[in-house]
Design brief:
Layout lengths: L2 H12 L7 E5 L3 H13 L3 E5 L2 H7 L7 E5 L7 H9 L7 E5 L4 H9 L4 E4 L5 H33 L9 H18 L3 E8 L2 H8 L1 H18 L5 E6 L2 E7 L7 H17 L7 E7 L5 H16 L20 H8 L1 H14 L7 H15 L4 H13 L9 H4 L7 H7 L2 H9 L8 H7 L20 H16 L10 H10 L7 H12 L10 H4 L11
Parallel strand pairs: 1-2, 1-3, 3-4, 4-5
Antiparallel strand pairs: 6-8, 6-9, 7-8
């Protein structure tokens, strides 16, 4: 992973609620302002208070405040107007709305406009307010980390990790773009394919470290001796490609001659390197971009003077490059960041501490139990780790509310699969992880949410995750209810087998526990053995 991006991710992940936040309290009622300030300062945070919206807006600077507590009604401006103006600024802070009792609809309106959370004023709401502010700050940091993560995966999906040049996956797009520009500008373009002579001998005789060093030196040589507008790529192994806009195969020869001379100089300074490279070139007169690339490829092997045949590196019958290497590189960058983000999510969502990992463990076992491939098993593990990511954007009061949720609160809670899907959907996974997250609360009889899918409309991965999620939720204690227990969870599965839950997944789950091949660990041993009455569970 790129060190700059990696350091930014680490910085975002290490900043937790124990950090000292600077919170702006915009409240015209002096008693409520004092209550908010005292509650925040008791937890080690700093506050700055404003009784007028205009003063707060004038004082606001990007990234200065970690969060804002905003009264819904202010003497000089409505809270919603202040919210809109804050959120339209560069890199805005999260805003927690403070509303009077009975203003739930107004609070929901604020949430739809971008507020991070809301707290109802009760006269003793300071602790809830402090918790909401801390969670809002954590949500924003997690979102920033996810953005950095997405950017890093995109970079890795398009860049050769060893040389830093674009890879074959990205070259396909760049070559097509170059062809489009050439048509628009009515100019030719050329493609040169280069292969380091004797590279296999260097790898075999001096080791792969020497071979890697040669590839890096060769990439740097190309950077130095090509033009600014030229596009450089590592095509695979010891093969490189140069796209030369504005050139035909004759006018690009000065560039290629400089490269040949530089290769000889490189050999003189580094005895382990090859002193030659085979170079083939073709231009846009050869046809479509893929045809030009293949023509340069054939010319390069003619330059070697031997009968070489390419099969493995090309799609049979089409001559099109196979765009897989970038995805493989993205996967290599995946696991450490998944672990770090999951740790951040779990650390700051303490009311379900361990839930994501336990669901992932069970879902992995169930996926194997129904005969999925290891690739599919790994995808389900990642989806399970992130399945409740969207709950970070659900108000904290709803997540821990001990009583019955209102219709509005249920509607907000049921948006968490949608929010999780939105966060993850642009990450270039090669399995439908975002869609699995979106569907994990769907049920086979169509009674689930958010889309009311039924039967085969639901991905098998989501049906596996649904069973694992329900079992873990019922086996676990929550601050707002005792654990129904594992026995009740298995009873739920048996009762609704083939109705709510996939019958094959249910059978695999029951068999796992019946044969003692899975348990959630010592931390759930007490609740897991409970056989208390079955109660409705909304994970």
């Amino acid at each position: 992973m790129d060190r700059d991006v990696d350091s930014q991710l680490v910085a975002e992940q290490r900043r937790g609620t124990s950090d000292r936040l600077l919170v702006a309290v915009v409240e015209d009622d002096p008693d409520h302002a004092l209550l908010a300030a005292e509650a925040l300062e008791e937890r080690g945070h700093r506050t700055v208070s404003f009784s007028r919206a205009a003063d707060a807006l004038a004082a606001h600077r990007p990234r200065e405040w970690d969060a804002v507590v905003l009264d819904y009604r202010l003497p000089d401006m409505s809270g919603l107007e202040v919210l809109d103006r804050l959120l339209s600024s560069a890199d805005p802070p999260p805003v927690v709305m403070a509303t009077a009792s009975g203003n739930e609809e107004l609070a929901v309106a604020a949430m739809k406009r971008g507020a991070a959370d809301y707290v109802v004023k009760t006269g003793t709401h300071g602790v809830d307010l402090a918790h909401a502010v801390e969670l809002a700050a954590v949500k924003q940091r997690l979102q920033r980390a996810v953005v950095l993560y997405q950017q890093e995966l995109e970079r890795r999906a398009n860049t050769d990790a060893l040389t830093g040049l674009i890879n074959r996956y990205r070259l396909t797009d760049e070559l097509r773009s170059a062809a489009t520009r050439a048509v628009q500008d009515r100019e030719p373009y050329a493609v040169a394919m280069l292969d380091i002579d004797g590279f296999k001998h260097i790898n075999d005789s001096r080791g792969h470290a020497a071979g890697d060093a040669l590839l890096v030196d060769f990439a740097n040589l190309l950077r130095r001796h090509t033009r600014k507008q030229d596009i450089l790529a590592r095509y695979g192994g010891d093969e490189f490609v140069i796209v030369l806009p504005g050139c035909d195969q004759d006018s690009c020869q000065p560039v290629l001659s400089r490269i040949r001379e530089a290769i000889a100089d490189l050999h003189a300074g580094h005895s382990h390197t090859s002193n030659s490279a085979s170079i083939g070139v073709a231009d846009s007169s050869a046809g479509d971009p893929e045809d030009v690339l293949m023509a340069a490829d054939r010319a390069m092997y003619r330059d070697k003077g031997g009968p070489y045949v390419l099969v493995a590196d090309h799609a049979v019958g089409t001559g099109r490059p196979v765009a897989t290497s970038g995805r493989q590189e993205a996967k290599a960058a995946l696991d450490p960041t998944v672990s770090a983000l999951a740790s951040t999510l779990q650390r700051h969502d303490s009311y379900t501490a361990g839930h994501q990992q336990r669901v992932a463990d069970l879902a992995t076992a169930l996926a194997r139990g129904v005969g999925l491939s290891e690739r599919e098993v790994d995808a389900i593990r990642v989806a399970a780790v992130f399945h409740d990511l969207g709950k970070l954007l659900v108000p904290a009061e709803i997540l821990v509310k001990p009583g019955k949720l209102s219709e509005v609160e249920v509607a907000l809670l049921r948006q968490h699969p949608v929010v999780g899907h939105q966060i993850i959907q642009n990450v270039p996974f090669d399995q439908p992880i975002a869609e699995t997250i979106l569907q994990h609360h769907e049920r086979c009889d169509g009674s689930g949410y958010p889309r009311g899918l039924a039967g085969s409309q639901i991905l098998l991965s989501a049906r596996v995750l649904a069973v694992a999620d329900v079992v873990e939720a019922m086996a676990s204690h929550r601050p707002y209810r005792p654990a129904p227990g594992l026995a009740a969870a298995l009873e739920e599965l048996s009762r609704f087998r083939g109705i709510r839950y996939d019958p094959d997944v249910v059978d695999a789950c029951l068999l796992l526990f019946r044969e003692g091949r899975f348990d959630f660990g010592a931390d759930l041993s007490a609740s897991a053995g409970s056989c208390s009455a079955l109660t409705p569970v909304l994970p």
